[in-house]
Amino acid sequence: MTLDLGLLLVCILGVGFLAQWLAWRVRLPAILFLLLAGILMGPVAGLLNPDKLLGPLLFPVASLAVAVILFEGSLTLRFSELREIGGAVRGLVTYGAVIAVFMLGVAAHYFAGLSWEVALLFGALTCVTGPTVIAPMLRTVRPNARIANTLRWEGIVIDPLGALFGVLVYEAIVSRHQGHTIGVFLAVVASGVVVGLLAAWVLASLLRRQMIPEYLQNYGTLVTVVLAFSLSNAITHESGLLTVTVMGIALGNMRGVHIDDILDFKENLTTLLVSTLFILLAARLSWPLPDGMLWSGIAIFLVAQLIVRPVTAVIASIGSALSWRERALIAWIAPRGIVAAAVSALFALKLDALGMAGAKALVPLVFILIIGTVVLQSATARPLARWLKVAEPDPAGVLIYGADQGARAVARALADAGFHVIVADEQWHDVKQARMEGLQTFFGFPASSYAERHLDLTGIGRLLAMSIHRERNALACVYYRQELGRGKVYRLANEDGQTTGGREQLSGGLGAPALFEAEMTHERFLERLAEGWRIKSTRLTTTFDWPNFIEQYGSPTVLLFGVEEKGALRVASVKRELEPRPGWTVIALVPPEATS
C-alpha cells in the first residue's frame, strides 16, 4: 500500500512537470494542461482518486497549498505601482472588476441555478486573470506596447486584489450560512488583518536586522506563512486565507526588506504546489458532468467572453488614450488563471462540508470557464490583433544582457540605427550609467522569474549576451533560445572559457553562436575600446562598398552588424559571416588611427 501511494505521488509530480514543460514549449498557460491531465487521470481513466489517496489529509493539504499560492501572489502587489499604471488599468482592477463580479454572478445564478451567494462567490473568483496566463498569451499574440502593458499590469494587480475580494465574499457567505451576525464577520476580517499585519511585521523585523541567515530566510518565511495561517484559523474560524493575503501585501510594500530571493523561492514552490494541486482537484471532478452542467458552463463562458469582458473593458477605458482598435483587443483577452482554480476548489470543499447548496457545481463551472477562455483566446487573439492592425510586426528589437562599457557602446550604435534596445544587468552602477546615456534598461537578470513578470519584451527579437558572467550568459541564451528562436540568440565569448583548452567551454547544446569573430572576446572588446577603437556606422553605396570601407579604415576593422535596405538587422557571428552589399548600413569596430 505504501509503495502504491509513493508511486502515485511520483506520477502526479511527473505528470505535473510534463504539463508545465508542454505549456512552455507551445507557449500556452500551464493551467490548461494541468487541468486536462487531472481530468484524464481521474474521472476519465480512473487512475487517480484524490479522496482515496489522501483521505482526511486532502482538505488540510489543499488549504495549506492555497495559502502559499495566495501569499506568493500577494507579494507582487506594490502600492507604488498603482499610481504609475494607466487609467484603463486602474478602471479594470477597480470598478471594472466590481461590474464583472455582479455580471458573472447574474449569469451563474440564471444559467446554472446557483444561489445568489454562491453565484456572487463565483463572480468574485472568475473576474481575475493573472500573470501566469497573460504572459504566455502576450508572447504569442505580440500586441502593441500599450495593449501589452495594459493587460500585463491588469494581471499583476488584479491577481492579489481578486484573491482578497474572493476571500471576503467567502467569509461573508460562511458567516451568514452558520447564522452568525455581522459582528462575527467583522471579527473574521479583523483577525485576518491583525494577524496578517503582525506576522508581516515580525518577519520584516527579523529580515531587516539580519537575524535569519540568508540560507534560512526562505525556510523561515514559509514557516511564518503556514504558522500565521494556522494561528489565525485557531483564533477565528476561516480567517487564515485573509491573513496570508494581507501578510503578503504588507510584506511586499515594506521598505528596507529585501524579498527578491524570497519571491523567487515562493514562485518555484508555487509552481510545484500548483502543478500537484490542480491535478488532484481536477481528478475529483465527476465525469461525465451532471445533466445540464456542461451546457450551463458553456453558456456562462459565452456570456463572460462576449458580454462581461467587452462591457467592463469599454467602461474602464473611458477617457483613456487607447484607440477603439486597442480597446477591442483588450475586450477580447481575459483568460482566467491560478487564483480562480485554486481558491474555487478549496471553497467548494469547505462549502460542501457545510452542506451549502450548489457548492459542488462551483469547481466544474470555474474549470469550464478557464479552459474555454484559454483555448478560444489563444487560438483567436493573434489573428484578431492582425485584423485590428494592433499587432507588432516581426520583432526587430534587441535585448542586451550586460551594461558595462562594451555592451553600452553596442547598445548606443543599435539605438542610433533605429532599433529598439533594452539593456539588462544585475549591476546597478552599470544600469544607472546606461540610463544616464539615454538607453532603456532593466535592473535584474533577464532570465529570472522577476523578469518574466516585469521585463516587457514587446518588439524584442534578439538576445546579445555580453555580460562578464560566462555561466549567466549561457543560461540567458538557453532561456531565450526557446523564447526568441535558436537563430536569434548570440553571446560574446569570455577569456576564461578560451584559455583552458576547451575544458570549460559549454557543449553545443548549451552554447550559442559567438558574436563578431572567433578571436573577439569580452575582454578584448573592452581593451580595444580603451585603446581608442570606435564603433562606426556607414551606409554603403555602389561607389563606396565594403572593400572601400576596409581600405579606408584598415584590415583590422571588425564587422559587428549589417542593416539591410529594408531595415532588417544582420548580426555578425562565427557561424554567419556577413557580406555587406551596397544599400546596407554597416556597424563596425574600427581602429583608432582610422577614426583620427
Features:
596 residues; alpha/beta; Na+/H+ antiporter like fold; Rossmann fold; 2 domains; 26 helices; 64% helix; 7% strand; elongated
What does it look like?
- With 596 residues, this protein is an alpha/beta fold.
- The chain has two domains: 386 residues, Up-down Bundle (Na+/H+ antiporter like fold), CATH 1.20.1530.20; 199 residues, Rossmann fold (3-Layer(aba) Sandwich).
- Helices cover 64% and strands 7% of the residues.
How are the elements arranged and paired?
Blueprint lengths: L1 H25 L3 H15 L5 H5 L3 H18 L3 H6 L2 H7 L1 H18 L3 H11 L4 H11 L3 H33 L4 H27 L5 H22 L4 H13 L7 H24 L9 H24 L7 H9 L5 H16 L5 H29 L9 E5 L3 H12 L4 E5 L2 H9 L3 E4 L5 H6 L5 E6 L4 H15 L4 E3 L3 H4 L23 H9 L3 E6 L6 H8 L4 E6 L5 E3 L13 E6 L1 H4 L1
Parallel strand pairs: 1-2, 1-4, 2-3, 4-5
Antiparallel strand pairs: 6-9, 7-8, 7-9
